[in-house]
Amino acid sequence: MEKTATDRRTERTKAKILEALLELSKEKSINEISIRELTERAKIHRNTFYIHYTDVYGILDDLENHMCTVAAEATEQFTPQQLRENASDVLEIIFSYLKERREYCMLMLENRTRISVGQKVLESVFEKYLTAFEDSCDRQAFAFQVQFRYCTSGVIGIVMYWIERGCMESPKEMAELTGKLMTKGLEGAILEVTV
Prior knowledge:
Layout lengths: L4 H21 L9 H8 L3 H7 L3 H20 L4 H6 L2 H13 L1 H9 L3 H18 L10 H23 L6 H24 L1
C-alpha cells in the first residue's frame, strides 16, 4: 500500500523530533529536556509536537514500539520450526537494525527500564519461536518466567556491551552467539517446566 503525503509528513516530523531528542540527550538528561527546547531544536511548532506526543517519554515509547515492530516483522519471515532450529537468522536482522540505529537504541535503553524493553522486544522475536513448543510450554509457570527474564537480561547485556564497544563484531557474529545462548536458555526453561 502506498503511503499518503500525510503519512510521509508525519514520519518526517517524528524523525525531526527524534533527532532533536538525540542531540539534546547528549547535552543533558532526558528528564531535564523541555518541550520548548525540543521543538526549537526540531524547528517545529509546539502544537505540532503535541499532535504526536504528550511528553518526551512518548518519543521513547514510539521508538520502543518501532523496535518491536521490526522484530515482529523479521520473525514473520520464518516458521516456528525454522526459528527453533536457527534463531540466529532472525537475530541477524535485528542486530543489523540495532547497528544501523545504535544511537537511538542507546537513547532508549539508557532511559528506560532495560529489562522491560528487552523483554518486550524479545517477546516480539520469540512469540513465534515459542509456538514450536506450544504443547510442552507453560509460559505462565513461575520457573519459565524466571528463566525467560534471566535470558532477557543476558541478551540486553550483550546488546549494550556490543553497542558500547562500537558494534565491532558483525551482526552475523552477534546473532550466532546470542542465538545459541538465548535458545539454550529458553529450551532449558521449557524442559524444566515440562519435567
